[in-house]
Amino acid sequence: MGAVMPDTYNPNFEATNSEKVVAGHWECLRRNEEFRTLSARWLASEKFRCAHALSPNYHDTEHHTPRCAWDWMLTPRQRVRLTEFQIEKLHWLTDRDFNFGMIICHEEFSPAAVTDKNWRKFRRVEPLPDPLPPVRVGQSWNCTPDLFKKQFRLAYSPPNKFEEVNTGLQELASLLRIAASTLAAGDPLKEAPIIAHYLNIFGGELREMAEFSKVFKIPKRRYSEQRFQSFLDQIHESFKASNLLVPTKTYDTHQSYQGTDEDWRWFLEAEHLGLDTRKSADLATLAARYSEDLRQRAMRGKAPRRAKAHGYSDTKFSSKIIKNRRSVVKCHVLAIQKWIRLAYPRQTPEPCVIAS
């Protein structure tokens, strides 16, 4: 698949904070080395696609964005073939919105009527009538199709909210008991089809709770503050282990979440020029460009208050100035590189052959 083509798209150009966040995630994800390596294998081999589609790295219930991207890298016909394989291997998500790509899925009959004999005929998948070009890691967010953006937004932030679920679980338990009693009595009112329909709905609700939420059971009784805090600490560790936590200031202040304007600007500048900030000469080149940009802004009255212009346009900067500003530009670049590594942190070994 090759390296990401340098571009000048900055996700902070987007109009809203929510769009900046999801665009920033795509920009980091597509630059992640492990993700790009897997993407290249995904495109090169149908055998690998089938094996990968059964792996935890693909079928991840906490991080949907890589799977969304991989599904969109396929042509509609390739995606249909993969879908048929996923259905056959029971790795097709029951929520149609979370099966991504240029396909349309139809349910041929009620989910309640699905049996071990007819389940292969339950879903019919067909290519998108007006297919779009597949997505590639070389595409910046602003160059991807609108339908991909819509699905990627959903993958990044599934609809959910914080709430206590006791009341809902009690109601569900009551309905399940009524259904069980009715069936145990021989279904005198012939309500089995209706019961089957609602059991399917209840199953879907429980599946969504398990997939889109972390559910913890804390017995309802009195606790000391210290004991209760130990439960909260365990919840914290569970979210942290799943890479779902970022520092409070980083998350709540968007200016630094997934990179500031300046972080992205100088990261993109280094990427565009092919500069490796681990090399002294390349870092000095970037520091010189940063210094000239700062000087031009200072002359227009648009630089930070304490910024110094250091001479006139096109005059050389002293080695001391360049040395001092090397650390500044390096910090900008390292900030984005950190987010790129976090975008796809998995280490699970990949399968080599298709599971039987």
Main pleated-sheet profile: 2 strands, antiparallel
In terms of DSSP E residues, the strand content is: under 5%
Number of strands: 2
Q: Runs with pLDDT <50, length 5+?
A: none
Mean pLDDT: 83
Q: What percent of the residues sit in helical stretches (DSSP H or I)?
A: 40-55%
Produce the secondary structure layout.
Elements: H1 17-29, H2 33-44, H3 46-52, H4 65-72, H5 76-88, E1 103-107, E2 123-127, H6 146-156, H7 166-184, H8 192-212, H9 225-241, H10 248-252, H11 261-273, H12 280-299, H13 319-343
Antiparallel strand pairs: 1-2
Structure description:
This protein is mainly α. The model has no long low-confidence stretch (mean pLDDT 83). It has 13 helices and two strands; from the N terminus they run αααααββαααααααα. The two termini are 28 Å apart. Strands 1-2 form a two-stranded antiparallel sheet.
Short description, anyone?
By secondary structure, the protein is mainly alpha-helical. The protein has helices at 17-29, 33-44, 46-52, 65-72, 76-88, 146-156, 166-184, 192-212, 225-241, 248-252, 261-273, 280-299, 319-343, and strands at residues 103-107, 123-127.
List descriptors.
single chain, 356 residues, mainly alpha, two-stranded antiparallel sheet, 13 helices, globular
